[in-house]
Amino acid sequence: MQITKLVIWLLICQIPALVGMGAVRENMQWYHSLNQAVFAPPDWIFSAVWAVLYILLGVVGYLLTREGVHYQNRPAVALFVGQLVLNACWTPVFFGHQEIGFGLVILSAMIFLAAWLMKKLWYLTRGGFWLLLPYGLWLCFAWCLNYATLVLN
Questions:
Q1: The domain containing residue 7 runs over which residues?
Q2: Beta-carbon neighbour count of residue 71 at 10 Å?
Q3: Could you report the per-residue pLDDT of 59-114, keeping only the tens digit for each?
């Protein structure tokens, strides 16, 4: 039962990647035509980092709900799902619609929700907090990169 729940969360947390995959593939030429920040990593870094982060998110989802959803963890579950939905929205907005500024707004909201979630996780599951920390740090890096792209273009 617990393995099934873990697998389900791992699969759910792949949805943002699947949602954005087409938008990225179709718009890489546009992205590469933009003025890039000096700290912009090569494309393969994004794929590698997000692959790991989506696995970590799946484990966090599992840790958060392994005892079910109840009054103590319901707000954290809502924050988790909310930030995951925003995560799924960013790529189609930034790449698909080529809306750099709106992408920054979405990332700002993601960081806010992730930070709030981390605060909740600290009290609910310290393991979940530590597993979410790399995600929060990457979101901050992504925000800086998105902001630099907005300013430079």
A1: 2-152
A2: 6
A3: 999 999 999 889 999 999 999 999 999 999 999 999 999 999 999 999 999 999 99
Q: Residue 9 in contact with residue 65, Cβ under 8 Å? A: yes
Residue 16 phi, psi dihedral angles, 5° rounding: -55, -35
- What six digits make up the tokens of 88? 């799924």
Contacting residues for 111 by C-beta, under 8 A, at least 6 apart: 136, 139, 140, 143
Query: Contact at 8 Å (CB) between 39 and 108?
Result: no
Residue 19: give its domain's CATH number.
Answer: 1.20.1260.100
pTM for the full model?
0.94
Q: State how far the alpha carbon of 116 is from the alpha carbons of 16, 79, 101, in Å.
A: 20, 8, 23
pLDDT digit string (tens) for 12-62? 999 999 999 888 999 999 999 999 999 999 999 999 999 999 999 999 999
**Number of domains, the chain:** 1
